[in-house]
Specification:
The structure is a homodimer of 331-residue chains. With 331 residues, the first copy, chain A, is an alpha/beta fold. In chain A, 31% of the residues lie in helices and 23% in strands. The first copy, chain A, has a 7-stranded mixed sheet with strand order 3-4-2-1-5-6-7, with helices on both faces. In chain A, α3 links the parallel β5 and β6. The longest helix of chain A has 17 residues. The radius of gyration of chain A is 20 Å and the shape is globular. The first copy, chain A, starts with a strand and ends with a helix. The interface between A and B is large, with 56 and 56 residues.
Chain lengths: 331, 331
């Protein structure tokens, strides 16, 4: 089976990566069309040695494709995707617009591919920080049950798009040169600094990114009561998110079994020899599509609790790659 | 009362800051002498407009001072400080050498000044990441009792000393120029990266920094059973440590009472209006000696759990300032 494919938001950081991954993985496609806003229309992106021109997105043109991979702002997605998606045009959407909509599957193929229905119309791609977390949680949830998950993230600027990547570069260069700290993308400077603020804030003090991690993990793991507490922090790193994770399991465990389980988990690589300086790092995620897990250790007080440290490439597994993997499930 | 003061390890990042803070706070001293290793002997540091020459440290010379503030590597401290300290020469030691020794007080003045004995010989200054944590935990422990503390740190490179600060600068400049990622201080690159590895690793997988946070918090808070779980991560920030903290209390609480309590806590400033981009940041700790606390929110599942986010200047409150404050308690 082979599709007419379209990429919506093709000029963005994730959109470009989707095109690259479709080529890398030799995705079975009839043809590829690229769509973006008026501003990017006319630009070209190379695909398998040919230059493909970006077209201005319209509903009519998008509906000519059978399968669309979309990475556009949430508001635009919410407006336009329901007009596009139907049984003849499946949309895999990277925005947060439909993730919590009942009946719309939220998929990490290694974790819950069985939740993709026979005749999907919209399939939601989860938030980057959720994807790498549930990949690691899933085998532990299945074998031991999750009593509680406390996670603090260390999220790279590429999660905010190309402009944030450039801002980190510019702010860093400026500060190295003149010592000046000036915010060029976020409300506050990010170079050599940390911002515990990702997305907008809810009335109860949680950021929307933190709320996403709770709600999306619950939906993907099929555990609507899951006790998960997240703190999301932006760090001066270009690519790759890290997560410090404290877990309480419902059953006793042997640490060696946990390591074996994670070593065998699809999409996950056990990378855990701290004395040899082998632990997950965001820069390592630039070189691999695997989610790295390390720093595995049992809590010194509660024998049913353990720590993990997780990194993954937020643009690839956290977004573009996961979307393409969902598409592969449909083929 | 006024002392003959000496600073051991005066040429280091913390040593220099101690000299600066003694001047800033107009510490009542008769005279000041500066000591360091042979390598730094002969260099001068300015104190109140005068150049003070650094002397090579010997036990005999050090014993001529009545009060010594010391910031030297742990091994050297372990060896030499017991020879120096006695009832005529009190040593306030910033190393980890004596922190867990029974009978040696481990002091954060705002938290446990009452643990300083009448006739101290050695007083230990806690680890940087512990100091800012216990400042915030203390009022909550007193009023509600701590059931559990889960903390993930974001620690700046200055905690490793001047060479690490320079390495971050050099690595960052190099990467901006050529894209090359080369470790110049730690085992792995720190520029635009994260390293979940601070100090050596224990057999059970915890890093020594994580173990310090557990053991030192227990000693300072006087709660040898405290359930605290720490993950310590080095981040590409020059000055200021951040801590993402999840707490379970033993009693019900109102969030407004927690905020009032922290707003009134000595050495702590409530800085918590995320919608106005007011949250603790390490760069803010370059401008204040207060420990900032924000992002305060009740967990969505467990009503007795809450999150906090804490930053402080690791070189000042986390080391030099706390040492000088201990000295002030003796005056």
């Amino acid at each position: 089976m082979s599709y007419n494919i379209g990429v919506l938001g093709a000029s963005g950081l994730v959109g470009q990566e989707i095109v690259k991954i479709l080529e890398e993985r030799d995705f079975p496609l009839e043809n590829i069309r690229l769509f973006a806003s008026e501003r990017s229309a006319g630009k070209t992106i190379e695909f398998k040695g040919k230059k493909v021109e970006i077209e201005q997105l319209t509903v009519a043109k998008a509906k000519e494709s059978e399968l669309l991979l979309s990475s556009m702002p949430s508001g635009i997605s919410q407006e336009i995707i329901p007009e596009i998606a139907d049984s003849n045009t499946i949309v895999i959407d990277n925005s947060s617009a439909f993730r919590q909509v009942e009946g719309i599957p939220l998929i990490v193929p290694e974790v819950n591919r069985e939740a993709i229905p026979e005749q999907p119309e919209i399939i939601a791609n989860p938030n980057c920080s959720t994807i790498q977390l549930v990949l690691v949680l899933k085998p532990l949830a299945d074998k031991y049950g999750l009593d509680e998950v406390v996670v603090s993230t260390y999220q790279s600027v590429s999660g905010s798009g190309q402009k944030a990547v450039e801002a980190l570069r510019e702010e860093s260069a400026e500060q190295l040169k003149s010592g000046k700290k000036q915010a060029k993308y976020y409300k506050r400077p990010i170079a050599f600094n940390l911002l515990p603020a990702i997305d907008y804030f809810h009335g109860d003090g949680f950021s929307n990114e933190e709320v996403k991690m709770l709600n999306e993990s619950r939906k993907i793991l099929g555990d609507p009561e899951l006790h998960l507490n997240a703190t999301c922090v932006r760090v001066p790193v270009y690519y790759g998110h890290a997560e410090s994770c404290y877990l309480k399991l419902n059953k006793d465990f042997k640490l060696v079994d946990i390591k074996d389980l994670l070593a065998a988990a699809p999409g996950v690589r056990l990378y855990d020899d701290p004395e040899k300086a082998e632990y997950p790092e965001p820069v390592l995620s630039e070189e691999t599509d695997e989610t790295l897990v390390g720093r595995i250790r049992r809590d010194r007080v509660n024998s049913r609790a353990l720590n993990l440290y997780i990194t993954a490439n937020n643009i690839r597994k956290g977004a573009a790659l996961n979307a393409v993997q969902i598409a592969e499930e449909l083929v």
